[in-house]
Write a structure and sequence with these properties.
Elements (H helix, E strand, L loop, with lengths): L1 E3 L19 E4 L5 E4 L3 H4 L4 E7 L4 E5 L1 H9 L1
């Protein structure tokens, strides 16, 4: 699990490498969670795969990485 943050430098080029990169604050690690379908409003963004509820009750949005990459390339 990654805790994402907004990049400070929007001008960084990804042309020198394949795939996607995310800047993160910290790597939390593997965490068990219960995955549920995403609600109607976030589903309209089409980059969310679902919602995860962790053991401690915290909620996480699950990203659909294939759709996110397709959205970034279009």
């Amino acid at each position: 699990m990654l805790r994402l943050k907004s990049p400070d430098n929007e001008t960084v080029s990804n042309s020198d490498s394949a795939g996607m990169r995310f800047e993160v604050d910290s790597i939390i690690g593997n965490t068990p969670l219960m995955a549920m379908p995403v609600g109607e409003l976030p589903a309209k963004a089409k980059i969310f795969a679902g919602v995860g509820m962790m053991e401690n009750g915290e909620i996480s949005m699950l990203l659909d990485m294939e759709k996110l990459q397709a959205e970034m390339e279009s």
